[in-house]
């Protein structure tokens, strides 16, 4: 798995998008957020956060393939691209990561054991939407996982343009020619 810093994120997205366009879907994205990471920092310090991240990377490597890519978006937020992976397979990989983080306490160098959980959003590209829209759907799914109690995986199906709410023609305001 290639790990990329946020600085190079746009380049990775451009490369990944080209790769996605060159091969048939499905391809999936995970947006992963550490639950209460700021609290971990406040209670145990930055060294504990570094140790939690190292444990996370270990679990992530076990649940993903060499060709998958990880981008660090923020101190506690990550995006993982999973080429040639459908929604259910991506959800299973996300659940493996989530479960491993929950079930295996982190032994801090101070001798304390802490549990660090993650919330994960999953979305699958269908070949039509932009990489930004795909990531936005995965991000919204991650926020839904956090809103439903944290330490969860939430997968979203592709939004259908035909299911978008529309106003009937009688509710549309006429255009003002002066504008």
Q: Which secondary-structure class do the elements indicate? A: alpha/beta
Number of domains: 1
Strand order in the sheet with the most strands: 1-3-4-2-7-8
Uncertain residue segments: 160-179
Kindly report how far apart the N and C termini lie: 53 Å
Proportion of β residues? 15-25%
CATH architectural arrangement? 2-Layer Sandwich
CATH topology: Alpha-Beta Plaits
The CATH homologous superfamily name equals Reverse transcriptase/Diguanylate cyclase domain
Largest sheet entry: 6 strands, mixed
Give the helices and strands as they follow along the chain: EHEHHEEHEEEHE
User: What's the number of extended β-strand segments?
Assistant: 8
CATH class: Alpha Beta
Number of helices: 5
Report the average pLDDT across residues: 81
Topology:
Elements: E1 2-5, H1 9-22, E2 27-34, H2 37-44, H3 46-63, E3 69-74, E4 77-82, H4 87-103, E5 106-107, E6 113-114, E7 118-125, H5 131-147, E8 153-156
Parallel strand pairs: 1-3, 7-8
Antiparallel strand pairs: 2-4, 2-7, 3-4, 5-6
Helix pairs in contact: 2-3, 3-4
């Amino acid at each position: 798995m290639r790990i990329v810093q946020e600085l190079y994120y746009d380049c990775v997205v451009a490369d990944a998008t080209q790769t996605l366009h060159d091969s048939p879907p499905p391809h999936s994205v995970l947006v992963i957020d550490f639950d209460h990471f700021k609290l971990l920092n406040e209670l145990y310090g930055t060294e504990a956060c570094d140790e939690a991240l190292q444990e996370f990377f270990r679990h992530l490597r076990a649940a993903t393939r060499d060709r998958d890519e990880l981008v660090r978006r923020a101190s506690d937020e990550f995006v993982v691209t999973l080429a040639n992976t459908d929604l259910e397979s991506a959800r299973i990989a996300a659940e493996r990561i989530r479960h491993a983080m929950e079930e295996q306490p982190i032994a801090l160098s101070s001798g304390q054991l802490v549990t660090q959980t993650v919330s994960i959003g999953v979305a699958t590209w269908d070949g039509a939407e932009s990489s930004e829209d795909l990531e936005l759907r995965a991000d919204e799914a991650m926020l839904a996982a956090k809103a439903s109690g944290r330490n969860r995986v939430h997968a979203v199906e592709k939004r259908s343009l035909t299911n978008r709410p529309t106003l009937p023609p009688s509710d549309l305001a006429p255009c003002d020619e002066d504008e």
